[in-house]
Amino acid sequence: MLEIIGSDYLIPYLMRNAEFRERYAAALRRMETEVFSPERVDAFIADYREKYLSELELSVERYYGEDAVSEVSEDIDNIQHFFDNRPEYMEAFIKEHLENWE
User: Fold this and answer.
1) How many other CB atoms are found less than 10 A from the CB of residue 25?
2) What's the whole-number average pLDDT of the chain?
3) Residue 38's domain spans which residues?
4) Number of domains in the chain
């Protein structure tokens, strides 16, 4: 299980403590509702798309050709998709790595 968290020694050591895991899970959930709330993320991505999409498309066309232009919008859509599903990803991470610690 320690390899999954990483090669850093501090985090695996802390993960052995049940209270730390509970507080860490609570912090991740708080970030989900405060930092990465749908309202904040949706507004940020919409603003990003409005400000940068046309410039990014021109840059991609210049370096990679016209066929690659549609990938810019698809990339932004993929980011939106990730954040739309982030709560489920984080909850799965919490259950797998924090609540079921052995």
Assistant:
1) 18
2) 89
3) 2-99
4) 1
